[in-house]
Amino acid sequence: MAEIIKDEAERDLMRLMTQWFEAIKRHDGAWFDRVMADDWSYVMIDGSVKDKRWYVHALQQPFETEPSAEVHQLTARVYGTLAIASGHYTIKATSQGKDLSSHTRFTAVWRKHDDEWQALAHHATRIAQQR
Q1: How far apart are CA 41 and CA 110, in angstroms?
Q2: Which end of the chain is less crowded, N or C, counting CB atoms within 10 A of the terminal residue's CB?
Q3: Which long-range contacts (CB under 8 A, 24 or more apart) does 56-63 make?
Q4: Mean pLDDT of the chain
Q5: Cβ–Cβ < 8 Å for 61, 96
Q6: pLDDT at 52
């Protein structure tokens, strides 16, 4: 029985991470506002730390080129009411004259709260280009 629940939770998280990148493409701040904990934090690829308010606002800004995002090697591991999703993604976008494109590895921490998964933290690291 516990294995079935764990499998279901892993599927839920895989679905949520896929929806995450779809919401970026739609500039859907309302989706992120629903899914993120109020104290959600994001360690960006440059090492700076941002919060939920910053992230939701940034997503709603216009892009010169519409963002594209592809998720690769997505995994989710569940530990009771906590879960860790990881993988890597490729983003291509330009905003305010700045190229935001990157190949990035990420780790995201989630918790089950009131029967819904809620994002707690996200950490991103740029993947070095192969020489």
Answers
A1: 12
A2: C
A3: 56/29, 56/32, 57/29, 59/23, 59/24, 59/27, 59/28, 59/29, 59/32, 60/27, 60/29, 61/27, 61/95, 61/96, 62/95, 63/93, 63/94, 63/95
A4: 85
A5: yes
A6: 97
- Residue with tokens 């308010």, as numbered in its chain: 53
Q: What is the pTM of this model?
A: 0.83
Q: Does domain 2-126 have CATH number 3.20.20.70?
A: no
Quote the pLDDT of residue 2: 47
- Start-end of H helices in the chain: 2-26, 29-35, 52-59
As given in the structure block, the two tokens for residue 18 are 């896929």
CA separation, residue 126 to residues 26, 67, 76, 107 (Å): 23, 17, 20, 12
Q: Are 86 and 107 in contact (CB under 8 A)?
A: yes
Residue 34 confidence (pLDDT) above 80 = yes
**How far is Cα of residue 91 from the mean position of the Cα atoms in its chain?**
12
**What is the Cα–Cα distance from 32 to 42, expressed in whole angstroms?**
13
Burial of 102 (0-12, 13-18, 19+ CB in 10 A): middle
